[in-house]
Amino acid sequence: MSPSDQPVPAARHSTQTQPLYSYPKYWAECFGTAPFLPMTRDEMEELGWDSCDIVLVTADAYVDHPSFGMAVVGRLLEAQGFRVGIVSQPQWDDVEAFKALGKPNLFVGVTAGNMDSLINRYTADLRLRSDDAYTPGGVAGKRPDRSVIVYSQRCRQAFQDTPIVIGGIEASLRRIAQYDYWSDKVRRSILIDSGADLLLYGNAERALAELAHALAHGRSVDELWDLRGSAALRQTSPSGWTEIDSTRIDWPAKIDSLPNPYEYKSAPETADDPLAAQKIRIVPLPLKRQAGIDEAHCYIRLPSFNKVRNDPVLYAHASRVLHQETNPYNAKALVQRHDNKEVWVNPPPIPLTTEEMDWVFDLPYQRRPHPSYGAAKIPAYEMIKTSVNIMRGCFGGCTFCSITEHEGRIIQSRSERSILAEIEKIRDQVPGFTGTISDLGGPTANMYRLNCSSATIQKNCKRLSCVYPTICKHLDTDHSPTTKLYRKARALPGIKRVAIASGLRYDLALRDPEYIRELVTHHVGGYLKIAPEHSEDNTLAKMMKPGISAYDDFKKLFDKFSQEAGKEQYLIPYFIAAHPGCDEEDMLQLGLWLKRHGFKPDQVQTFYPSPMALATAMYHSGRNPLKKLRYKSETLTVCKDIEQRRVQKAFLRYHDENNWPRLRAALERMGRKDLIGHRPEQLVPPPQQQGSRRRRRR
Question: What is the average pLDDT across 104-108?
Fold first, then answer.
């Protein structure tokens, strides 16, 4: 029996973990720490290296800073004793560019960088962007579309027998069949198209450490298909496991009329079935709670690629199942058939402890771009060079956002000591530091150290959000650790101001008015950006966002505390147009809400269907995966036509006279000509008559 056919040891999917800093170091640790991870052979020679153990290929410029994924991955592996080199933004049609550091001894790691390459290159209207924040000088065109696929294919040409491991957000959000907005079709798992051997999803420190040490000890990448936080290709499912069949949504009311689901499939009865030659116990999804399943050896079968490609409702169903299996303490492996291969997705990685988070962020980053870029500015670095990431993850579960699909719902926080030490490093090491920390946050500003109050409940929970439709009673909402951190940060010598620029979850902040007081009094520089996203309950329900009344309650406290501090400060709300489930009536009501409140938004957002997001499943299928799917279940309003999307966006910028003709036409079509006029309650003025224009010119 080959290694890939053997059952997974229960310990591999165990929630017990080995601390990142406890692995015996690889022999190459004798070379010490590199000032910067090498990008050329000359740099390797200066370090005394004859080869790299691991080569990382990235579509971003190399910035040795903990906010840049390749720096974290590289320094993490270096700390394990490996020699790590970086190939940054190679010429993608030249195989020789990928050989710049020679053939690595263990594996090649490939990423598109901190952003999805397609979102990086195209706007929500599919227009080509003119700049790239992750490239020196902000120059566009230094990365290919679908960078992970292109880079992986070049790496295979360059190093035919070297394992290729893909990761980062682009790979992470494409681990199964996914709707692709840019081609308007469902694409295969990126594992298939890239030809990679292994995919690591999410923040992959645990998987990277285990993978590198396993390969260094002579194991093959095929033996590591069961690694937590990874996805791999298999020919068949493992023998002796139980399959939970989730390939259909129309199970009959009486499941017991089906053939006995507890019998093993046998080869003579199912000769053409990929499971036929193995003992696989099949349990229909509706019976999984009754089956007495061995949780350590079961997986969920999703509808195949061919099925989800041809059936949007099954696509929405597969998305629903995937999102229900994201809690690392109870998630099951997922399997999806792609023609003659199985895409096997292991449960998510166990979150890092505070000690491990501190260890990762305390690695010897230079905190600046590689010297080869000279004086060229890298916009993304300029934006974050004086910011500090204090936590990871988000339990908000907003359907349009991919943070939870990538980083998870369980908050991972650094210690106060580690955060304050990083602020001091910024003060002492960043050239031209003026005394201002530009942000102290993460995916959200105010989830630091917030978590479930019960470890038992957390390990059994399947909720998609801890704060929607209401804040869970088991969620610890005490913001005092954040408040104390703010106070200590701004008290450090040489620190004049600590700004908070990360998104604020204001419905959560309402649970701790003292936090709001602290934030408003000391950390708002005139304006605070928050994201109600919409005013109408119908659309907000599809976003999994709180009602607009929570915004009103927050604004009252914001204004009160600003007045007490003697400051004139304002909220800057963000909104989204054309979200699935949002029709023109909802956008009209939002436009009227904006006008009543005196908001004239400048920068507004049109819904961007990113891979794997629940809202993207809504966009593609016209169904709501927040509810159990049926072929006869409710359909959603989905705005796909480019002109319809522009109309919805125009309601957000009702004050822009360039949008008035489009809005007048929409209001007439909706039977709301009463909202065309000059009165305060009307949305847009009527068209000027020719005579009045002449008089104005005179």
Answer: 98
Chain-centre distance for alpha carbon 159:
30
What is the band of 6 on the pLDDT scale with cuts at 50, 70, 90?
very low
Domain enclosing residue 264, as ranges: 237-339
Q: Are residues 8 and 78 in the same domain?
A: yes
For residues 35 and 172, state if they share a domain.
yes
Q: 2 is written with which tokens? A: 């080959």
Residue 241 and residue 231 in one domain: no
- For 204-271, give the DSSP string: -HHHHHHHHHHHHTT--GGGGTT-TTEEEEESSPPTTPEEEE-S-S---S-GGGSS-TTSBP-TTT-T
Strand partners, 233: 343
Tokens standing for residue 3: 């290694």
| Number of domains comprising the chain | 3
- Which residue from 281, 285, 282 is spatially nearest to 324, judged by alpha carbons? 285
E-strand stretches of 394-482: 412-413, 436-437, 439-441
Per the domain annotation, does 405 fall within a domain?
Answer: yes
* Residue whose token pair is 């009536």: 585
Is residue 631 packed enough to be buried (19+ CB in 10 Å), middle (13-18) or exposed (0-12)? exposed
pLDDT for 2 equals 38
pLDDT of residue 119: 96
Q: What would the pLDDT profile of 269-294 be if each residue is shown by its tens digit?
A: 334 455 555 678 888 888 877 777 88
In this structure, the answer to whether residues 118 and 215 fall within a common structural domain is yes
Within a domain: 685:
no
User: What is the CATH number for 22?
Assistant: 3.40.50.280
Distance CA 294, CA 616 (A): 33
Torsions phi, psi for 584 (to 5 deg): -65, -30
Domain assignment present for residue 205? The answer is yes
Answer yes or no: is 146 within a domain.
yes
pLDDT at 9 over 70: no
Does 125 lie in the same domain as 64? Answer: yes
Contact 373, 136 (CB under 8 A): yes
- Does 212 lie in the same domain as 125? yes
CA-derived radius of gyration, the chain: 27
Whether 188 and 131 share a structural domain: yes
Rounded to two decimals, the pTM is 0.93
Q: What is the mean pLDDT of residues 392-405?
A: 92
Query: Largest alpha-carbon pair distance within the chain?
Result: 92
Q: Torsions phi, psi of 115, nearest 5?
A: -125, 155
